[in-house]
Q: What sequence folds into this?
């Protein structure tokens, strides 16, 4: 099984790159983990947010391909460490690769939410999306 983190946003702050890379380095060799960055749509005063979300979602789903899709979303299911370990084991037994989706500033598109087999909530708090990358990498390694 291969894990893939599909996240909206490119040019992350150095601390995000450093933290993510540190946890990526610690991953077991038998569980490859990759990051796919989706460029965020341009947001401005008159931006069509629905269109931007739809485009970001389209790109995220294309990157995920036929993988199991798990969204990172506040209304998702909170997993403690033993529950996450159980989910990882289930995913391994399933045999498919897994794509974890992190949306942009407005979250995930309806298409991403509809395609998800599971939705995982890291916290009831709204977390900065760059921080979520680091938290997910740490939680999974």
A:
């Amino acid at each position: 099984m291969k894990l893939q983190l599909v996240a909206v946003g490119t040019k992350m702050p150095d601390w995000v790159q450093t933290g993510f890379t540190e946890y990526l380095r610690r991953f077991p060799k038998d569980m490859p983990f990759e990051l796919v960055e989706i460029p965020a749509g341009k947001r401005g005063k008159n931006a069509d947010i629905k269109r931007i979300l739809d485009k970001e979602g389209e790109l995220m789903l294309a990157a995920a391909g036929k993988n199991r899709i798990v969204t990172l979303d506040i209304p998702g299911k909170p997993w403690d460490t033993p529950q996450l370990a159980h989910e990882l084991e289930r995913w391994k037994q399933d045999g498919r690769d897994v794509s974890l989706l992190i949306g942009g500033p407005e979250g995930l598109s309806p298409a991403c939410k509809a395609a998800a087999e599971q939705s995982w909530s890291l916290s009831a708090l709204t977390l900065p999306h760059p921080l979520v990358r680091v938290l997910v990498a740490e939680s999974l390694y």
About this structure: Strands lie at 3-8, 33-38, 68-78, 98-102, 118-121. Residues 2 and 31 are 6 Å apart (CA to CA).
